[in-house]
């Protein structure tokens, strides 16, 4: 099985940067694709970005494309999300997730971390 633990959340000023990390343990490569999702109270979990382990072609939600960058480090079993030019609407609980196939649907991800909170001050 795979376990995911996120870190790096916190308070960031609008326009600033934050880097989230997710460490995968257990059998991390049993799931080929890693994704970041976010959720705010009363709303459904929203896709942010996805990338395969060691992959070079990432996919992003329109709302974050050009500002966020997802990357993986297979030597450290880590997937990261670099958040630049952060906006107030980026505030959310951010989740790392793992899936067998490439997808932007939360339904297709069967392994989830506990989430890390991102708060944006304007």
Could you please describe the fold and organization of this structure?
By secondary structure, this protein is mainly β. The protein contains no helices and 11 strands. Strands 2, 4, 5, 6, 9, 10 and 11 form a 7-stranded mixed beta sheet that branches. The termini are far apart. The relative contact order is 0.32. The mean pLDDT is 96.
Q: What's the structural blueprint in terms of helices and strands?
A:
Elements lengths: L1 E6 L2 E4 L4 E9 L6 E7 L6 E7 L6 E2 L7 E6 L4 E6 L8 E8 L11 E2 L3 E6 L1
Parallel strand pairs: 2-11
Antiparallel strand pairs: 1-3, 3-8, 4-5, 4-9, 5-6, 7-8, 9-10, 9-11
Provide a quick synopsis of the model.
With 122 residues, the chain is an all-beta fold. The chain is built from no helices and 11 strands. The protein has strands spanning 2-7, 10-13, 18-26, 33-39, 46-52, 59-60, 68-73, 78-83, 92-99, 111-112, 116-121.
Radius of gyration from the CA trace?
Answer: 13 Å
Proportion of residues in helical segments: under 10%
Strand content: over 45%
Principal-axis shape equals globular
Features:
mainly beta, four-stranded antiparallel sheet, seven-stranded mixed sheet
């Amino acid at each position: 099985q795979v376990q995911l633990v996120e870190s790096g959340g916190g308070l960031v000023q609008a326009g600033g940067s934050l880097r989230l990390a997710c460490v995968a343990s257990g059998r991390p490569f049993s799931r080929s694709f890693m994704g970041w999702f976010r959720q705010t109270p009363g709303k459904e979990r929203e896709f942010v970005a996805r990338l395969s382990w060691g992959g070079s072609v990432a996919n992003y939600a329109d709302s974050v494309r050009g500002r966020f960058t997802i990357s993986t480090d297979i030597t450290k079993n880590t997937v990261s999300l670099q958040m630049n030019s952060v906006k107030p609407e980026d505030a959310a609980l951010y989740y790392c997730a793992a899936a067998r196939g490439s997808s932007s649907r939360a339904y297709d991800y069967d392994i989830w971390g506990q989430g890390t909170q991102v708060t944006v001050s304007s």
